[in-house]
Amino acid sequence: MNILIIGAGGFIGKHLSHYLSNNHSYALFTPDSKTLNASDEKSVDAYIEATNPDIIINCANRGGGRDSGNENIVHENLRMFFNIVKHSDKVSKIIHFGSGAEYGKHKPIVDVKEEDADKAIPLDEYGFYKSVASKFIEQSGNNLNLRIFGCYGEFENYEFKFISNAIVKNLLHLPITINKNVFFDYLYVEDLVKIVEYFLHHETAYKVYNVTTGRKIDLLSLARLVNETSDYTSEIKIINEGLNNEYTSENRRLMGEIGTFEFTPHREAIIRMRNYYASILETIDREKIESDPYLQLCTTFWNKHEEKE
Tell me: the pLDDT tens digits for 152-167? Predict the structure, then answer.
């Protein structure tokens, strides 16, 4: 099976490449952005014609995170998306990663089902782009949308991603700071790649799946887990009382599709991540972590959605 991973240099793309490369039945194509520019139609056309993949996994993505801007997100991402899905007739399947943002982050997203995404149009640029792509996929023949609500693991941007950021702060004996507590449905990336592999080999009943554990956890509990798995106890600071907009889903459609699946407990995942970040600790800029770019941006990231309610 020939698999093309577009965006293989990103967080999810990198984990997928590592995981699938251990299975010798796959021939992987993992071009960097210089080799394949997903924004350039001719570049995508030429690469797909030259490699003739059986399946395309689209990890190409711009914006959406606290560490990214909000300019041209809809235009740039939709251009990449349609440059890729125009080749649907040449492959057996295209797997695209959607987002819980499709449900509209201007309001609480609580235990949502896949069909609930039609109840509101996202107000933010990133959520709107993901929503447009999702609606196209629902009407297409062989495209699949896997909606992710919170994926974490090694290699993510520890300056801005909460779990990695908390682990690094603990390793540096710094306080763990939470702007406002909130419930997420976090999925460990090593579970995600196993689920993706299932979809490589099976025809599905639906075009869209919430890829989540179906179990919510709040940031305070995660911070406590970081402390419990360490020989040092970081102070945990919460800046604003109460709870921010929840961001969780149910996963009955997913579980009905894949059957039994054992999700990695957060404690176990945090221990693995701690070992990884401990191994690269000398490369981490302590002064930058102390300046807390995560905290500086996360206030704006959530508050701008609350203001639009």
Answer: 999 999 998 999 999 9
Contact indicator for 205, 257 with CB cutoff of 8 Å = yes
Q: What is the DSSP annotation of 179-198?
A: EEE-EE--EEHHHHHHHHHH
**CATH class (in words) of the domain with range 2-151+187-211:** alpha beta
**Residue-wise pLDDT tens digits, 59-87:** 998 875 544 445 689 999 999 999 999 99
List the domain boundaries for the chain: 2-151+187-211, 154-185+216-245+265-306
> Closest Cα to residue 80, out of 36, 123, 121, 138?
36
The number of beta carbons lying within 10 Å of the beta carbon of residue 79 is 15
Give the fold, CATH level 3, of 154-185+216-245+265-306: UDP-galactose 4-epimerase; domain 1 (3.90.25)
Region of residue 165 (left: phi > 0; alpha: psi -120 to 50; beta: else): alpha
Cα–Cα distance for residue pair 18/72, rounded to 1 Å: 31
